[in-house]
Amino acid sequence: ERPQGALVQSLRQLGYRIETSNGKLPAVICGEGARPGESVVSIEESSQFASALLLAGKKGQWQIKVTGENSEESPYVSMTSELIAMFPKSGGLFEIEPDASSASYLWGANWLLRRFPGTEHSEVSVNGWMKHSLQIDARFPDLISRFPTNISRRDELGDSIMTAIVLAPFAEAPKRLTDLGRLRLQECERVRALKHELKKCGGQVEESGDTLTISPGDLHAAEIETYHDHRMAMCFGTLALKVPGIKIQNPACVKKTFPNFFQKLAAPSPDGLGAKITNARTGEPLKIPELHAD
Fold it and tell me: From CA 130, how far away is CA 166, in angstroms rounded?
């Protein structure tokens, strides 16, 4: 369901023939190799197309111009450009950064533990965390420690803003999560999904344009629809560390990026958080091997 028209249009500008009935997959792409040319790609809806074209640009002999929302400063486009510049031209070793977006759930768990009486001496750490990173979501640990009143999806965080949204009910004051339009165009309509599922748990959530305002309040258990979205499952899995009894539908969708996520929650320290995870139908505790998403 992700928008794909911008990529189709760019490849057609470069002279490639693409057969698609609706501007989306499935499609037949007729190539014939490198075809020097220029193309303009918009990142109004997604930056992934720009990154794909930039990565293939040298081989394809393409000149790519990026337009759209904050095109000069888009963190993911900038990260791609920096990666291209850093990559060893004549071979060698290249260190790939860990996934900062997925690490946000563990940093979020750490924030939860340190906020509640009786757990102030507990701490979650992320082994091998980066001192420097090209990823915008590497800012999450510092930002969540301050948890400012306003957080922008465009300027301050990437996908990890979803983690901030589910943590917001536990903050001391209302939080405004802004510029969320991109979230509407990903694995599901994430703004609507987050609002709906948090409200199921008793959250006080107001939607205005592409902004969610979340007020502090007590939450209760509910059955969470994940919409086949790995980040919805992991966000509410993190929330369940402080809201016992939450049931998560289709938890195996985490396999897209973090197949052992629930194993990390359940494994005993120091390899995990020691959470008790049960089968929602039977109430029986699940063993660590059973929690791997296949």
Answer: 24
**The residue count for the chain:** 294
What pLDDT does residue 6 have?
A: 83
d(Cα 52, Cα 56) in Å, to the nearest integer? 6
Axis-axis angle for helices 48-60, 5-13 (nearest 10):
20
- The stretches in the chain having pLDDT less than 70 are 1, 69-73, 117-121
| 62-67 and 37-42 beta bridge pairing | parallel
pTM for the full predicted model? 0.83
- State residue 69's pLDDT score: 66
Query: Mind listing the pLDDT tens digit for each residue in 133-169?
Result: 888 999 999 999 999 999 999 889 999 999 999 999 9
SS3 (DSSP) at 66: strand
The secondary structure of 10-56 as a DSSP string is HHHHTT-EEE-SSSSSS-EEE--S---EEEEEE-SS-SHHHHHHHHH
The conformational region for residue 248 under phi > 0 = left, psi -120 to 50 = alpha, else beta, is beta
Peptide bond into 270 cis (omega under 30): yes
How many other C-beta atoms are found inside a 10 Å radius of the C-beta of residue 1?
9
Per-residue model confidence (pLDDT) at position 94: 81
Residue with tokens 């400012």: 148
78: left (phi over 0), alpha (psi -120 to 50) or beta: alpha
The predicted structure's pLDDT at residue 120: 59
Strands (E), the chain: 17-19, 28-30, 37-42, 62-67, 150-152, 175-178, 204-208, 211-215, 223-224, 247-248
